[in-house]
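If you are new to this repository, start here. Below is one unmodified record pulled from the training split, so you can see the exact layout before writing a loader.
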Amino acid sequence: MQKRRRTISVVVPVFNERDNIRDLIKSVDDVFKNLTFDYELLVVDDGSTDDTLKQALAVHQQYPNLKLIELRRNFGQTAAMAAGFHHASGDVIIPIDGDLQNDPEDIPRLVAKLDEGYDVVSGWRKNRKDTFLTRRLPSWLANRLIAAITQVRLHDYGCTIKAYRKDVVQSLNLYGEMHRFIPAIAHWSGARVAEIVVNHRPRTRGQAKYGLSRTLKVVLDLITVKFLGSFSTKPLHIFGGIGAITLLAAFLSGTLVIYQKWFAETPLAMNRNPLLVLTTMLIMMSVQFLLMGLIAEMLCRTYHESQSKQTFVVRAIHQAKTQNSQTPPSPSPESLT
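And here is the target side for that same chain:
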């Protein structure tokens, strides 16, 4: 039986990129003319206020593989990317930026690396063509912080161009700025992650949509991702741990109060000792953290059991062939070429 040709879905979230959209569509189409893959290009217009969508519609009929998705308003890059993932039908999904700074010529290299047995291949803008103070320095600091907290060692979490197997991203629900954390989230689910150097081109038309204000959002989302990745099925571990530390601090503070009352050379009355107030407050805090952990445990069970969500992810099921077996085994993602 002839193997099915692999389909690549290229997802491009765009916002006010009227000067770049036509060249972007053409450049992606030109790349796939020389490849043996089937492909689809999903351009997600994230509520553009210029004529980005008009420019794309003007060339829509020239590209049969082009699909335009128009959002009702500006929801943000993560939401636009999630919309593209939702409507993608390819075996491999590759998001790229709409400002022409990502190079579509890197797509074959990403797919080739994916075929080595990886589930996610992330791009690394090693020679990034952006301003140092407002773009490269904050990005460098954020990447080091994200790598340290998630324990997934990538150089460039903010690089949009990546390659994902379809099953990796279509099971994810993305919020906030979490699209940049997909490799870490996927890794926690057992996905194999790799990184390659990609070309990065300077922006020649249009203006960057993101600046330093995005850094705080990324840090807050990082806290959320770390909590969901490490404690989403065992929240009592973190709240109970904080409560235990707080109770230990209360014990040490209370011990010092007793020592100052009964054993110090100059006794200090307990009702005049501020450490007594601190001890009482720490005891109350430890109880509150413990109760928060128990409530979070109940919410966790309600979340998983009400939606029949599993606390594990199966990569594959291997079963020996039998003479009575009529159904052939499903092909692995690597065999879909």
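Two things worth knowing about this chain: Residues 327-337 have pLDDT under 50 and may be disordered. The chain is about 45% helix and 10% strand.
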